[in-house]
Amino acid sequence: MAEQYIVGVGAVIASLLGFLFLYCNSLTKFRGLRKLKRAATPKGNSVNKTGNSEGVGTTDIIIVGAGVAGAALAYSLGKGGRRVQVIERDLNTPNRIVGEVLLPGGYIKLIELGLEDCVDEIDAQEFLGYSLYKNGKETPISYPMEKFQSHISGRTSHNGRFVQRLRKKAASLHNVTLEQGTVTSLIEENGIVKGVHYKNESGQVLTAYAPLTIVCDGCFSNLRRSLCYPKVDIPSYLVALTLTNCSLPKKNYGAIILAHPSPIIWYPISSTEIRCMVNVPSEKVPSVSNGDMACYLKTLVAPKVFPEVYNSFISAIEKKGNIRIMPTKIMAAAPHLTPGALLIGDALNMRHPITGGGMTVALSDVVILRDLLRPLHDLSDAFTLSKYLESFYTLRKPMSSTINILANVLQKVFSASSNPAMENMQHTFLGYLRLGGVFSYGISAMLFGLCPRPLSIAFHFFSIAIYGIGRLLLPFPSPKRLWDGAEFLWLASKYSSPLHILRRNQTNILPSNCASIL
Question: Which residues form the Squalene epoxidase domain (predicted)?
Fold first, then answer.
């Protein structure tokens, strides 16, 4: 009863603060949205001109990269009648350890693109949520699916199998061409990108021209510096193992163990395989080649894993070549407008992969870009087109900001620390989720891409803060409890920095089901 009273007070305060945010920004947002609507509506012949620009040839759009974003975009644009040329560095099946979780919000976007059959016939597993474990106690995070059809859920699978299905779907269209080649640079004339230079499989240097070049060549993009201001942070590394002959405690659920020294993430990637990810801080990554990593996993991580997977975990460590490491990258979207070119996907924006939100953000970007380009018959006026597509970076913010902020904050909260205030933060977050109702469902709806509303993060942040302080002060605010509460509040304020970007991220373009969820 006391906990619910504390959270109730927190909810009232958070609501008042939310209304204050809205009141202060209402005029600004109203004017901004009017400008956005005007910019997003082609006028006269400003973009819909007849005739082709010099050197364009027979291609409307060049797409650099055929990963999840590139292949899905190629299909959606080709389906709309565009002549699309896709240049991908390697058309063989990718062998990646990320891009394996498709949240339900991402699956909805897949349906909007007509690509839902791409998760069929690849042994993809239905994914219903996560269970968080700390000190042996479980806290479930389930999708609030009451407002959706029964077939809507997340999926987990091998990234390579999913990508190949998307590529096959795109290549099935007669006006979409997939070509293996490495794009070395953009062709720029008088400040306008006209196309790309690339090397084909035989090493021959070729050029391709189109009115619009869309770069989505992933987290290792070699073209992003030409189109944005990249500032990449690497807070940790993911150490990945593939386990067989075992199962997780809850079928169709992933699991995150909040353990010391690192959180451990689990989810199925097929009917017979489990992916295990250990999040290791960047400054503490042992070497794989000299056996230090195997020792680290056996001595520090293995004692924390579930008993039912322990033997498979040890076997996975001992299997040659089964330990794989990848840096986690965080990069805010900071594009600069370049006529004739656009940047999307992980080439533009990355978040910590602990929540598996990358593919959901990428597919949301594809839907937005498809809808923006759909009414345009000709793309030859590069400067007008660039100004028109500027709205893309605004329209993507509700989904991208919501998932990015939560992923980046939660990786800090979930990371182990000897600081008692951090322990209090973890226990407070888990206790808040256990309250259920609007508190649990509100967090999960945002986390899983079902309700991309950044302002709701502010609501829940303040509610969690007040709940945490009340939890520490009750039943009597002794001097030690007051000190612990002050430490908790200071730590919470450190993680509130993402809220500073909410003012410029907020728009009124929200899914119709948000109000019923939150």
Answer: 210-483
Helix 420-434 to helix 479-494 angle (10° resolution) is: 80
Question: Comparing C-alpha atoms, which of 219, 198, 218 is closest to residue 210?
Answer: 198
Question: Which residue did the predictor score with more confidence, 17 or 482?
Answer: 482
- State pLDDT tens for residues 137-188: 999 988 776 677 777 899 999 999 999 999 999 999 999 999 999 999 999 9
Please give the CATH number for the structural domain made up of 61-126+151-231+331-400. 3.50.50.60
**Integer Cα distance of 141 and 129 in angstroms:** 6
What distance in Å separates the CA atoms of residue 389 and residue 69, rounded to the nearest whole number?
17
Q: Which two tokens stand for residue 481?
A: 């409890």
Q: What is the spatial distance between Cα 61 and Cα 249, in angstroms, rounded to a whole number? A: 47
CA–CA dist 1, 15 (Å, integer): 21
Query: Average pLDDT of the chain?
Result: 83
Integer distance in angstroms from the first to the last C-alpha of the chain?
22
CA distance 109 to 454: 19
Model-level pTM?
0.85
Ramachandran angles phi, psi of 265, nearest 5°: -110, 135
Task: Convert 110-123 to b/e letters by CB count within 10 Å (16 or more is b).
Answer: bebbebbebbeebe
Sequence-distant (≥ 6) Cβ neighbours of residue 319 within 8 angstroms: none
Tell me if 306 sits within 8 A of 248, measured CB to CB.
yes
Tell me which DSSP letter residue 450 carries: S
Helix (H) or strand (E) holding 325: strand 324-327
Tens-digit pLDDT profile for residues 208-238? 999 999 999 988 898 998 899 889 999 999 9
From the list 401, 370, 390, the residue with the least C-alpha distance to 507 is 401
Strands (E) across 89-211 are located at: 101-102, 125-127, 129-134, 137-142, 154-156, 176-189, 192-200, 205-209
Helix (H) or strand (E) holding 239: strand 236-244
Domain coordinates in residue numbering, the chain: 61-126+151-231+331-400, 232-329, 404-504
Helix (H, G, I), strand (E, B) or coil at 161: helix
In contact, 130 and 143? CB cutoff 8 Å: no
Cβ neighbors of 199 (< 8 A, separation 6 or more) are: 181, 182, 184, 205, 206
User: Tell me, what's the pLDDT at 1?
Assistant: 47
List the CATH code of the domain at 232-329: 3.30.9.100
Q: What angle do CA 159, 162, 164 make, to 5 degrees?
A: 105
Q: Which tokens go with 225?
A: 């510096």
Provide the pLDDT confidence category of residue 495 given band limits of 50, 70 and 90: low
In whole angstroms, what is the distance from residue 488 CA to residue 262 CA? 21
